[in-house]
Amino acid sequence: MKTTGNTILITGGGSGIGRGLAEAFHALGNQVIISGRNAKTLDETTAANPGMTSLTVDMTDAASIQAFAAKLQQDFPFLNVLINNAGIMRPENLLAAETGTADAEAIVQTNLLGPIRLINALLPHLQKQAHATVMNVTSGLAFIPLAFTPTYCATKAAMHSYTESLRHQLRKSKVEVLELAPPYVATHLMGEHQAEDPRAMPLAEFIAEVMQILKTQPSATEILVNRVQPLRNAAAGSAENYATVFNNLNAMME
After folding, report:
1. Average pLDDT, the chain
2. What CATH number does domain 7-252 carry, 3.30.565.10, 3.40.50.300, 3.40.50.720, 3.40.50.2300?
């Protein structure tokens, strides 16, 4: 991926990994547009980064995504990079008698249907550019699940599969398709405790390693920092190795 000379949309760009990526690309002179549902968070990010632009969108709402995509194409005709980063992660006790499907449906709408809808809406525009990139942010948990967040892990596994299919279908086009799979990073995705958890990879270190990979490995299709490798490769070994990684991961997070 070219790291300069782009017009980049980053969903969920007002906080966490999305903001980190937005600021890193902005510092390289790219035109960066961030989106999300919380206008206050977006405004705080753009105020701290003069020249960055923000737009609100509800990634759970198909009509909102369509209107958002239309405005993007009108206001930013040279948009050539889409980074699907917006996502939510919630614990789910599947054994609780009162458990419904509201959380699961919200996660699927945000993490899976949202990016698929946005890709569908923007792909014709991206294909008209001289060069373009779709980067889907998945997770190390796409490859080995954290059992207390089952739907989150399932949506990330689905996005990994979808990304591979999209890459294959676009293999003869000018649109490259990348997957960024973070490890456990110190953000507020699961609340204050995650942001302060010493076991989590510091956000600044994660962003720095990601940008270094993008700069030095321009043809990489999976963007994997060193800390996520054990999760990414767990299934490549023996069944015993997978079971060990799974058990250690879930014991650590209990």
Report:
1. 96
2. 3.40.50.720
